[in-house]
Specification:
3 helical TM bundles of succinate and fumarate reductases, 4 helices, 121 residues, single chain, mainly alpha
């Protein structure tokens, strides 16, 4: 026979906690490593740094793939952060939904623009 010592506690929410925390750290570490790679290429390059030097740095296929990976990581990082801000501070559900949809559209447009710039070099 079970004894009921009070009402059951109902826990609601998306329960993203650990996954979001870990994704923020992993994407931040990836972006930091990418920054170090680009800085190393700039620091150890010879001659003046202009458009040709930057185009040369990003012309290699491995650098394009790495940059694309960092763009995706940046988008994930921003999305998790903005979603958390919206969930914490925007209480009306309709407004939160509109802001989340706007953020998704904006980030998708930014990704398209970044890829276009990256592969046009």
């Amino acid at each position: 026979m079970s004894v009921n010592y009070g009402s059951k506690r109902l826990v609601v929410g998306a329960h993203y906690g650990l996954r979001d925390w870990l994704s923020q750290r992993v994407t931040a570490a990836l972006m930091a490593l990418f920054t170090l790679v680009v800085l190393a290429q700039v620091i150890f390059s010879k001659g003046p740094i202009g458009y040709d030097k930057w185009a040369g740095i990003f012309a290699a296929q491995w650098m394009k793939v790495l940059t694309f990976t960092v763009i995706v990581a940046l988008l994930m990082h921003v999305w998790v952060g903005m979603r958390e801000v919206f969930m914490d501070y925007i209480k009306p559900v309709g407004l939160r939904l509109v802001l989340q949809v706007f953020t998704i559209v904006w980030l998708t447009a930014c990704a398209g623009w970044a890829v276009q710039v990256l592969w046009r070099l």
